[in-house]
Design brief:
2 copies of one chain form a homodimer. Chain A has 415 residues and is α+β, with helices and mostly antiparallel strands. The first copy, chain A, is 33% helix and 27% strand. Chain A has 2 domains: 278 residues, L-amino peptidase D-ALA esterase/amidase; 119 residues, Roll (Ubiquitin-like (UB roll)). Chain A is globular. Chains A and B meet through α8, α9, β13 and α11 of A and α8, α9, β13 and α11 of B.
Chain lengths: 415, 415
Amino acid sequence: MRISEQTIHMKNINSKPFDTPLGFFWAAAEAGIKLANRLDLGLLNSETPCNAAAVFTQNLFCAAPVTFCREMLSAHGNNIRGVVVNSGCANAATGPDGLENARLMARMPQSTGCAMADSENFFVCSTGTIGVQLPMDRIRAGIAEASKKLAQTTEGFLDFATAIMTTDTVRKTAAASLEVEGTTVRLVACAKGSGMIHPDMATLLAYVATDAKAAPEVLDRAFRYAVDRSLNCMTVDGDTSTNDTAIILANGASGAEIAAGSEAERDFTAALTSVLQDLARQLARDGEGATKLVEILVTGAPDFLSARKVGRSIAGSNLVKTAIYGRDANWGRIVCSAGYAGVPFDVDRVRLTMGEILLFEAGGPVPFSEEDALKVLSEEKIVIHIDLGAGNEEATVWTCDLTEKYIEINGSYRT
Amino acid sequence: MRISEQTIHMKNINSKPFDTPLGFFWAAAEAGIKLANRLDLGLLNSETPCNAAAVFTQNLFCAAPVTFCREMLSAHGNNIRGVVVNSGCANAATGPDGLENARLMARMPQSTGCAMADSENFFVCSTGTIGVQLPMDRIRAGIAEASKKLAQTTEGFLDFATAIMTTDTVRKTAAASLEVEGTTVRLVACAKGSGMIHPDMATLLAYVATDAKAAPEVLDRAFRYAVDRSLNCMTVDGDTSTNDTAIILANGASGAEIAAGSEAERDFTAALTSVLQDLARQLARDGEGATKLVEILVTGAPDFLSARKVGRSIAGSNLVKTAIYGRDANWGRIVCSAGYAGVPFDVDRVRLTMGEILLFEAGGPVPFSEEDALKVLSEEKIVIHIDLGAGNEEATVWTCDLTEKYIEINGSYRT
């Protein structure tokens, strides 16, 4: 599916203010969970119940809030009131106490007197240090404070997006709107991830709120399609975290219905994909120690999953990532990592370009100008395009380069 | 299979001289393929025809000598006379000319007048720069020179092992002997790999020569068993090269037969595994930029492949490897990488130790002394033991730490 420029309006979030979806209220508080004087508690609350879809880490060692969210989605996925999230503590490897704390945290918007929380159906997410229990008094105080500040504003949304950051160096947000039979539907999304300081672990958290009216199965289908082509097409270092969570809430406040099988579903899915791809690029670019965003376009594949597998194999290669850091048009490392992806193709039909430079064709290297290559590789965004000559499907995968800074960040001895 | 100390005698290769297998002659020459004044051409020649077994890279982009060796093994696997190998040029991504050059190279021991080469059945291996054709005149001159120097000596073997090195910082060799019904059988092995300087690619080459008498199918079975538990249990950076090749030649010169299904087969397989595991440890320890050897023992697995999968997942984690470099007993990164290996187990039954220190048990971290952990992590060899509590099988995987030096080696701009 290609995104229709006519119907989807991507927003440049840096040009504030922009419209947040109707009926969603946002806030953040400085709860002092790990550090003082920073927003570390986010609250998202919908005026009316939402349909929800969500995807979670596949790691066997999943954190307590992931277990809790899975249960919440399964029991109340058509009646969700919001999300409460903290940074500074991941509530992972915390046993039964950790799970009980996640449950308590979900009830806090209501129990601390948040005017709009008339049910306990909140998703709970945590990111930060693992193996440590949540400081529940601070969490409670933070939620109480955030409850008072809830606002349907750009600033509220941006505060929420700030509160989920750990060692991210930039805030990641995206927004879009589309017209459904004359009615405007809005989406906003934010995410965090890729930074970590020992003993924290990487966590990817992503949230999308939309005022579209969409049945749970429509929402789930659109979300899985979009996540597959965005967050699941992004890698920093190949390590799947224990806390990864992506959630979409649809409260229907726009009145526009996304009916199953309709043109609207197609447009909505495209808009959602576009928003999440925007976040995926931002996440990859802010990978630990990264100096460059690497976009890997795989075409000529027999199917999407094969294309993505090849893209991920290239994106996962330390050798490719260090070569790009070193501004080296190292076609050998790229074709090599494509070759061990486990996807069958004929190496003599492979065509590889970096930027506009043709590097490999018909089974062998193509002479190129080192000067031109250095120019392409000096850019902040590097586009690698490999055509497998084995079909008509494609995928794009995003990653970053691998630098000494990554080693420094992750190898620095605990103090 | 456990190695029987009664029957297998591992040799400490550093305490020269040691017995090389009967009937194998070794030599090396300075052919000047890439650099002057270094051994870069190795020749191994058996007095009598050998049975052979070999395993090759699974990369779709395999180099010309790999294609050639596969054909040679299939056509003449029971009548091999030796190996000719060069460093300095990988003969990879070289098209039909490259394949023709590999064929020519195989015939050179005989055509240049080597007294012992009375057939053209030589394996051909190359390692070094890719995308460049072999300098055939130098190869020919090198083979002619080596032919004259062939000797059944420790020195000849060590020269051969030196000639295959690229940017390896140490030579990797191992040897063992065993008694088969009163007759001594000898094995020697050498390997190269893990070092690379752009635009070279990593190549793992490993050779084993034995004077055992073993039918091709027995040799193949023993070799695959051993490789699976040694070279295939080792990773530096997860990048599978285009040239990986491991070969065993058995010339039967000892007169001792390794009969299928016999006690001798069991002992021979154990000795072979032991020798190749020794090489695997040496290869991992000499990984690019490495300061430490990391040995990951996975026990309590439902089967060997599952155990190895978990071990490889831990060994492949950049986060684990940087933590070890940083002398950080980061149990979280270790259990996390085990959790996404794709092997089912109950996280509450997992037990993790590093050295003698218990780090994780019953689903949660165990308090430990930072001082003790720093002591363990300051050693040059780090042993991680994870028990999955999910069966009785086990595997050991070897890797190294990930350091700034790796980035420097692989990210240095081409000059």
